Amino acid sequence: MPLGSPSSIKILVLEDVPEMGELIRTTLVGGGPIPKEPLIEVTLVRTVVDAFRALLKDRPHGVLLDEIVPGENPLELLHEPALQGVPVVLISASSAPGRPLPAGVLARLPKWGWKDIQRARVQVLELLNRG
Prior knowledge:
By secondary structure, the protein is α/β, with parallel strands linked by helices. The protein has one domain: 3-Layer(aba) Sandwich (Rossmann fold), CATH 3.40.50. The protein is 27% helix and 21% strand. The chain has helices at 18-29, 48-57, 117-130, and strands at 8-14, 39-45, 62-66, 88-92, 107-110. A 5-stranded parallel β-sheet has the order 2-1-3-4-5. Helix 1 crosses helix 3. It is globular.
């Protein structure tokens, strides 16, 4: 489901570490609306159960999944019918290049730091638009 040109883009983010979740939200939302770009709305959740609930409540345009959540399997979300046709990008602190992507996933991105924020925002939007 390519993003097209909606007036706002809803992105669901599953990230268990609160500080990283806020960094991701800040990265995607930026300093507010950018001329000629849609408004980005981020729903941030910390557990797989909360991600399931958020999916059923309000279908997002795209999903960023933390690949490793202690005690949970975020990849279970890939089997949720409500996610059918929604672009999914994995984010991971693990650096194991060459691992195959699970079915239904567009890409795996490394978690970023402060200096990578703008580049990551552009990369996420481009990937989700490809979906």
